[in-house]
Input
Amino acid sequence: MSLRCIRLVTFDATNTLLKFKVQPWEYYTILGRDYGFEGSDEDLKLRLLDNYKVMWNKYPNFGKNHMNWEDWWRQVVKKTFDGQLPSNANVDGLANQLINDYKTTKCWYLTDGSHEVLNYLRNYGAFLGVISNFDPRLVEILRNVKIDYKLDFIYTSFDVGYTKPDPKIFNHVLMQDIPGKPRNIQPKNCLHIGDDLEKDYKAAKAAGWNALLISNNKNYQECIPKEHIFQNLIDLRMAISKNKLNVF
Output
């Protein structure tokens, strides 16, 4: 592999370093039962996905510049459960419980291979970080799954003010004076690893970075070089260790 020119490596969070323990609509259903919800998780799935999309389109990036991120999520929860709970249900209590639980290992676990690939890249000398479309809870989540200490920086879209696939979020990292960051890093010295073709792979490429995709979607091989696609982080780590990775 040619890691010799790579000095900075970033990862996406959800579905790259982190996984949901159960799908969000399933967890919403579980907690909703305590507040009187009697529908199915499939019913809630459509409502959650639709209302998340409505809120994102109206107030992008978790309400950045419009409201605080907690209130953004409270609106998502209230809209999702609108008409689905008894009239006396404490919807605010449900929303707050969901917001807090999604900081914890009740809802998240570390993807297999995360520690190993970070260890390998650290031993190689790479500066490591996370760039993710996320609200500020991400720092606490990564601490709770015990991976934060292996990262040199964590940037969320909410904190930066740009969301992937906007290349500005990648440019922002290069402009920051982060303690320990190697000097004179150029986009060609950077590598981003994520699971989304548009938001991770193509967005990083548009910023002039190198990129790899973690996905088992075989259709992606029609869009990008197959050697840039790995089914999981374990396969990626093996490719790195066997000198079989080509990021260029």
